[in-house]
């Protein structure tokens, strides 16, 4: 087993780290406080190649691999998880599915715009009454009599980047009687008539990553904007989430790394009873456990990224790898940030220190793109073969 990174992987990691530390970290607290969408930074990240890392150069991307993507995402999320969320959605949930299932025209039109950072992409699966149970969606798409377009009526919730997205991958049922097999995927242009946005959600964490509800009322979607075939939508959605969960695992590792680094520095500098608190056994135990959980999460995430790369060649599934990485990394991030707040004492509870932001940001990694409970179900079902 070779743990060495390629030159390209090291280059994208270094570029992301430099941008994150110099352009994102200094303004992260301000964006968190205001909830303002960091559009200028996102466009700069697009110019740097961070919005389409795995996208081939032919479609405006960097043409790098999944390991390079997660390494870059870890660096961005260590500076600010909200910036990382926008980056993850653009890369994993938007571009990934179109590259795998889209036509050449769709790749040129939609992927290029997002990979360059010129436009923002989003992924619309969740509905107010169906989160984990995505197959029970109420959104409907009806093919016109002349077969030229679909009329879509839908209400979607918790749409990351929704307030600013130009294009979305949206899922709606074209055959309600068929259940999951009747769901179809569509490319949505938010500037078309029939599309509207609801309120922006007031969130606990990742506050600069804007989230909202969207509605489509008699939205006319040209048939050429259907992604994949009729009834293939649920398969596309789950396939995209397999990849997306690796991105969330990387996000969790980045948050955990930032919390660990802050805790390590504080343990070395803070003194109590005439000694650095890092000399106390209880603090040493926290540091040791934080480090072990962090590195275990990192290795599982990198292995999942490697498994995704192998799947391109072999066709093998990497569902379990992605679910394990997300489960372990998200719970590690939540535990490590909790310990970081505790280790910092009263200062950990203050907005003067960044660890309280890390703590708030970490929680969402246990929820979106499949809760921890769903990940355990996925892993167990795949392992046992039982439903």
TrEMBL record:
Pfam families: Acyl-CoA_dh_1 (PF00441), Acyl-CoA_dh_M (PF02770), Acyl-CoA_dh_N (PF02771). GO terms for molecular function: acyl-CoA dehydrogenase activity; flavin adenine dinucleotide binding. The keyword Flavoprotein applies. Keywords: FAD, Flavoprotein, Oxidoreductase. Its EC number is 1.3.8.10, 3.13.1.4. It comes from the Bacteria. PROSITE patterns: ACYL_COA_DH_1, ACYL_COA_DH_2. It catalyses: 3-sulfinopropanoyl-CoA + H2O = propanoyl-CoA + sulfite + H(+). Its cofactor is FAD. Belongs to the acyl-CoA dehydrogenase family. PANTHER family: ACYL-COA DEHYDROGENASE, ISOVALERYL-COA DEHYDROGENASE, MITOCHONDRIAL-RELATED. This is 3-sulfinopropanoyl-CoA desulfinase. It comes from Wenzhouxiangella marina.
């Amino acid at each position: 087993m070779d743990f060495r990174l390629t030159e390209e992987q090291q280059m994208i990691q270094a570029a992301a780290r430099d941008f994150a530390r110099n352009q994102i970290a200094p303004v992260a607290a301000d964006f968190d406080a205001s909830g303002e969408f960091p559009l200028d930074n996102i466009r700069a990240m697009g110019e740097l190649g961070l919005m389409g890392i795995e996208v081939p150069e032919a479609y405006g991307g960097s043409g790098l691999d999944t390991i390079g993507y997660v390494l870059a995402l870890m660096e961005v999320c260590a500076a600010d998880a909200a910036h990382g969320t926008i980056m993850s959605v653009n890369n994993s949930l938007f571009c990934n599915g179109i590259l795998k299932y889209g036509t050449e025209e769709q790749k040129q039109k939609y992927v290029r715009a997002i990979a360059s950072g010129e436009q923002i992409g989003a992924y619309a699966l969740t509905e107010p009454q169906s989160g984990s149970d995505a197959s029970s969606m109420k959104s409907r798409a009806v093919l016109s009599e002349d077969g030229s377009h679909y009329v879509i009526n839908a209400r979607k919730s918790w749409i990351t980047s929704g307030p600013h997205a130009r294009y979305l991958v949206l899922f709606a049922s074209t055959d309600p009687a068929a259940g999951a097999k009747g769901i179809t995927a569509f490319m949505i242009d938010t500037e078309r008539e029939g599309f509207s946005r609801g309120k922006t959600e007031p969130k606990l964490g990742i506050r600069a990553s804007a989230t909202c509800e969207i509605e489509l009322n008699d939205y006319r979607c040209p048939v050429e904007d259907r992604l994949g075939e009729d009834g293939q939508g649920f398969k596309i959605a789950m396939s995209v989430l397999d990849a997306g969960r690796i991105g969330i695992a990387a996000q969790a590792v980045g948050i955990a790394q930032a919390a660990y680094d802050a805790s390590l520095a504080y343990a070395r500098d803070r003194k109590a009873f005439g000694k650095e608190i890092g000399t106390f056994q209880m603090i040493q135990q926290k540091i040791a456990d934080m480090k072990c959980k962090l590195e275990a999460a990192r290795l599982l995430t990198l292995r999942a990224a490697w498994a995704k790369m192998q799947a391109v060649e072999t066709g093998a599934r990497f569902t379990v790898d992605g679910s394990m990485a997300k489960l372990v990394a998200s719970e590690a991030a939540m535990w490590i940030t909790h310990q970081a707040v505790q280790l910092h004492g009263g200062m950990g509870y203050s907005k003067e220190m960044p660890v309280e932001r890390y703590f708030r940001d970490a929680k969402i990694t246990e929820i979106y793109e499949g809760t921890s409970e769903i990940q355990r179900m996925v892993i167990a079902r795949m392992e046992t073969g039982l439903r």
